[in-house]
Design a protein that fits this description.
heterodimer; A: 16 helices; B: alpha/beta; TIM Barrel; 2 domains; eight-stranded parallel β-barrel
Amino acid sequence: MHVGTQGTIKGVTTKQLNDLGVPIILGNTYHLGHRPGPSVVDAAGGLHKFMNWDKAILTDSGGFQMVSLLKLANFTEEGVKFQSPHNGTEMLLTPEHSMAIQNALESDIMMQLDDVVSVLTKGERMYEAMERSVRWLDRCQAAHKKVSTQNLFGIIQGGLEPEWRLKCLKKMISKDCPGYAIGGLSGGEEKEDFWKTVSICTDHLPKEKPRYLMGVGYQVELVVCSALGCDMYDCVFPTRTARFGSALVRTGQLQLKNKMFSEDLSPIDDQCSCLTCKTYSRAYLHFLLNEDTTGVILLTIHNIAYQLRLMSDIRKSIMEDKFPDFIRTFFSTMFPDKSYPSWVVDALSSVGVNLV
Amino acid sequence: MMVTKRSPEKQIPVTDVHLAKKAKLEEDESNSTVNGDQTIPEKIKSKKKNESILINPELEVRIEPDKTRRSQLNTTSHLIRTFKTEHFTLNSPDVMSYTHCGQVPHVTADLCSSTVNGDVSIVPLHSILTCIKVLEKLNKSLAEFVKTNNKIILNPFNSSEPCDLTAFNDQLGMSVWGKGGRKKITSKEYLDIVKISKPELFVSLSDVVPSSVNKKRANKSCYRTLQWVTEAIAFLEGNSGVTSQLLAPIPGSGDRQLMMKSANLLASRKVFGYVIERATLPTENWEDLVRDVVSILPDSRPVFMLGVLNELEIVKAYNCGCHFVDSSFVLHFSNRGQAMVLDSANPTPLPEPSRNPDHASTEEANKDFGPSLAENIPSEISGETEDKKKKKRETGKVLIFKPEHYIPSKSLTLDLVSAVYTRQFLKIAESCECFTCERHTRGYINHLIITRELLAPTLLMLHNMYHIRNLVNTVKAKVEGGSLERYEATLEGVFRIS
């Protein structure tokens, strides 16, 4: 899923997204609830109509931004207390508020409000967060007004502690959500801990329901976690890195602002069929990135196309029963010297794919 | 042409005067004051400063407009034309897309249908300075490098900028403001750039100064610009491989006498067409002057007015006999969050935007959804300017733009930044069929502007560019119907009320 925080993927029109074949985008409840505000989106007839997007939309709960953007967020049983970044007054986001806003946005997938703590938090507070997230899922389900048109996903918490994850899994699965997210990861934990936690969750989550791994989006992680059994991802990485002038390719990334590309007349990726690769050279993009916003837009289009192709290749290889081969080809292209990160090797061997 | 390689600078003015005399003889056969011109060359030689020829009172020959031609400037035979060369064709009247590096700012090529982009692009020199070395090394023309099928006009002056930035020009060259700040480009350097980038057309270097400068500075600008034109002509004669066509800027900073003299001198020069920079003209009432100037230029050559400020000025420029205008002002409107809404086929003043009392307070309305995330939107808007620096950092784009100098006082636009539009889920303009109006609403664009999203100027560019192309089609129809003058008057009335 590509992140369109404020009701737009930065710089790209919805027609272009449609042409690229983007099936679902993500909107941030915190940002959209703030500007233009739920009542405006509601008056427009929901976020789809507001931004003219007829494919799927997922909205988050708004809780994560409280942690990532606001230093003064304080979680209580009632909700998240935070100071408004604009006028400094104290405000409260409860599970009920989060549901009301997401109902107004009319997203296809809504996320429950969860108690987010840093993944590195140890002990009591982490356990409390897990327990509270379970209780808040109850309140979210009770407050959710459009059950027939919007799907509310639960978020598995529990930090890096396998037992707590299992406990959370058990409790949440019993609540029969249409899908589940694995939350609380990608926050600076060791990669070893990361993949093991993902693996525990995917082992126990119901097979027939979508599993959404939150905050993951690097190429390597997408391939490994798909092998571990995840179905959906979100990350600002491909679009944000484009704004820094970085292009995603099968071998990793190209920093197009680097002088070495100033005379390179080849496309970013000669096998890519996006507008950018079909039309422009690296040299031109190198030049344009320094001169006009159009360069950023062109690069964003390429990075979205790259990631869509990566995911559709994964899907195709799974359907053809060739996923292990795909993984091996992918990693030998990404790491030609075969210096695979050890966590990748371990994670893949846990599902029976041997890289070395 | 008596230009010798050894001392071209001293010879040029003499040549100018010769040509002036010749042109004048050809143009005004019945003029009896011609005999005074015979002694000019000797007088020039005695002058220490060559540039004094333009202010030499002895040379105060009054150049009169060609009255017959002047009355025919807005007719079909003058305006609706095809200018052909071996390598390209230009159809007038037309509006040329203002671009950065050949790319319409904010808009990617897939969204640039011909209704947005047209088939001629203006490329200001500052936007391609950093790629010239690469072009030379790779042996690519600019059009090949930027992958455009449009004809390219290279212009050393950036028509979208206020011209006080050219105060740094001197007789050696012109100051161009690019990404790294000011860069001095000499005539030779510029002609080398033309040779490398191979545009279809190029404007020679010009010392563009506003009409507010004093007579001495205005004279200097004429002298320099004419000298640079001469150098460009000599360059084209000496480089038969260069197929780029030369457009000569008409200097004179809005001074009637200087402009008429310059035009008269340039009329007989070997150039493809002429450029009048809007920035050199007075703020208002420049139409008569431009008409006079155009009337003495050869009928077979196109006249471009670059840097017009709004729709009304486009119509005025055509009505004064200019064949082409550019779209640089559209970028400013779009960057400011303004959407053009003049109904060109049936111009009427804008109704006063009515504030719907039900929707006036977004804060109030959002309270139903919990007070926690509801913010007062209008307060956000006022904060916009403070974030300019941040925006600059994010987009990496340097905006050299002085609104007070540039904003036309009146124009028919919706300021989509205003909270009035937050809840208007309507097209920008009811009858518009542009990309933006077919897909997005005023409310959505208002949100994009307030959140400073990249998409806001993109959607506005698409609408505004489409809008002025529509206007040009209307103008064409009016010219054919012989009613351009009446149309201009109607439009002027509409603009005055709004």
